[in-house]
Write a structure and sequence with these properties.
The chain is α+β, with helices and mostly antiparallel strands. It has one helix and five strands. A five-stranded mixed β-sheet has the order 3-2-1-5-4, with no helix packed on it. The protein is elongated.
Length: 104
């Protein structure tokens, strides 16, 4: 009997923070909590002249536990301004008025 084809599981995604090395132009990606050992790891991100986002992606954990994906944390949703809130309220009121006219 043949073995079933098993797809490898995707490596876990970890959020990182960009930190400069004091007194130099070197930057590091800091992993706050490793998914394998729950420790803190650092990965080179280049220098101030380089684009550090090019170094994001799959890397090996510093503890040797396996690979994980370096990723930026999601940005919070922006709040709507006063103008947008008023416009939304106006559109809702207009839609309600259109539906009320159709019911009659």
């Amino acid at each position: 009997m043949a073995k079933k084809h098993r797809q490898p599981s995707a490596p876990p995604e970890t959020y990182v923070q960009l930190l400069p090395m004091p007194g130099t132009r070197v930057l590091f990606w800091a992993v706050g909590e490793c998914p394998y050992c729950e420790g803190r790891h650092y990965h080179a991100a280049g220098t101030e002249r380089d684009d550090p986002t090019e170094r994001l992606g799959e890397v090996q954990a510093g503890c040797g536990g396996g690979p994980y994906v370096l990723a930026l944390p999601p940005r919070p949703a922006r709040k709507k301004g006063k103008k947008a809130r008023r416009r939304e309220a106006w559109d809702d009121a207009r839609d309600d008025a259109l539906w009320d006219d159709r019911d009659e």
